[in-house]
Design goal:
With about 325 residues, the chain is of the alpha/beta class. The protein is built from 13 helices and 12 strands. It folds into 2 domains: about 5-125 and about 305-325, Rossmann fold (3-Layer(aba) Sandwich); about 135-300, Glycogen Phosphorylase B (Rossmann fold). The protein is about 45% helix and about 15% strand. The strands form 3 sheets. It has a 6-stranded parallel beta sheet with strand order 9-8-7-10-11-12, sandwiched between helices. Strands 3-4-5-6 form a 4-stranded parallel beta sheet, with helices on both faces. A two-stranded antiparallel sheet has the order 1-2. The radius of gyration is 22 Å and the shape is elongated. It starts with a strand and ends with a helix. The mean pLDDT is about 90. This is Glycosyltransferase. InterPro entries: Glyco_trans_1, Glyco_trans_4-like_N, Glycosyltransferase_grp1.
Length: about 325
């Protein structure tokens, strides 16, 4: 079922005035055991607890907005407002799924009780996303392949990577692939092109093609100013790619203790100008980091583990609800 809306984007949704009633009637008819909502900056997020309480339905939320707990730039300050807005209302949900310890700590500082929060990270299909053979490097005549996958938008800080690459002159045998689309792509593409061995692939809808790109890559780079828990980063790690990412959101937590290289969100270009030649010239470093990245995903971020944890949480919430009902009889 699709609820009617006045406006919808990747950032927020404005539902129609009738949406609440339509949703309530649909839930009353469906009678689910559990309602699980993904909170995406919609006024319905604040009405949903009231609706489920009226229908006596257990309610779980997934809350995954990007953040930077250190508030080091304007983008992170803007995202922090989202957390401040939602924190008082999360108490009305039976459980709230967050993706990392850092996100849990941020919400607790804003007054959300620890018992309301369940840490369940994003998960990757580690069979599908795995090391394998790819012909891409030979097709573009690359000895060393560096890859970015994501939106081409301000918060992703892609230009910091592009500046470092252009200033270094990495040589003809090193290529940088930019995979993704977004509002900054047209302007950046004009200044950072093939003459610098930078290839713009745009948005790649075919999943197998994206996997082939990651399997060909030597290094995956994510220079974001704010993040949640990047699924693109986890997919690259699962494919055995050496990863460099900022400590925005939970990405630094994913790469901590040697599973990758963690950058500060301040001065990303300067840091990359040191690291990129090192990764270009030392294959043994990228191989070792790729192995550690793959193992980290197998240990903590597999899709199988994610599903098991969500199922366990459903059971826990249902049992609590049944106990609550019995106590009132």
């Amino acid at each position: 079922m699709t609820l009617p809306f006045l406006y919808k984007s990747q950032i927020y949704t404005i539902p129609t005035p009738k949406s609440s009633k339509i949703l309530m009637n649909a839930l009353a008819k469906l009678k689910p055991h559990v309602v699980h909502g993904s909170l995406t900056l919609s006024t319905l997020d604040f009405r949903l607890p009231e609706i489920c309480q009226a229908l006596n339905l257990p309610l779980i939320a997934t809350f995954h907005p990007p953040f930077d707990s250190k508030l080091r730039n304007f983008k992170s300050s803007t995202q922090f407002l989202t957390y401040q807005l939602y924190a008082p209302f999360l108490a009305h949900y039976d459980k709230v799924i967050v993706f990392s310890r850092l996100q849990q700590e941020l919400l607790m500082k804003l007054g959300v009780h620890k018992d309301k929060l369940a840490i369940i990270p994003n998960g990757v299909d580690t069979v599908k996303y795995s090391p394998g053979v790819s012909c891409l490097k030979s097709q573009i005549k690359a000895k060393r392949l560096f890859v970015y996958v994501g939106r081409i938008a301000t918060e992703k800080n892609v230009e910091a990577l592009l500046k470092a690459w252009k200033q270094l002159d990495m040589g003809e045998q090193s290529k940088l692939l930019i995979v993704g689309d977004g509002p900054l792509k047209p302007s950046l593409e004009d200044f950072y092109g093939r003459e610098h061995n930078i290839y713009w692939l745009g948005f790649v809808a075919d999943e197998q093609k994206r996997i082939d790109i990651l399997r060909a890559a030597d290094v995956f780079i994510l220079p974001s100013l704010v993040e949640g828990l990047s699924l693109s980063l986890l997919e690259a790690m699962a494919c055995g790619v050496a990863c460099i990412a900022t400590d925005a959101g939970a990405d630094g937590e994913v790469l901590e203790d040697g599973a990758g290289v963690v950058l500060d969100t301040q001065g990303v270009t300067t840091q990359l100008k040191t690291l990129l030649p090192l990764f270009r010239d030392h294959n043994e470093i990228t191989q070792l980091l790729g192995q550690k990245a793959r193992q980290r995903v197998l240990d903590k971020y597999s899709l199988t583990s994610n599903i098991s944890q969500v199922e366990k949480l459903y059971q826990e919430v249902l049992e609590r609800k049944n106990i609550s009902i019995m106590s009132h009889l």
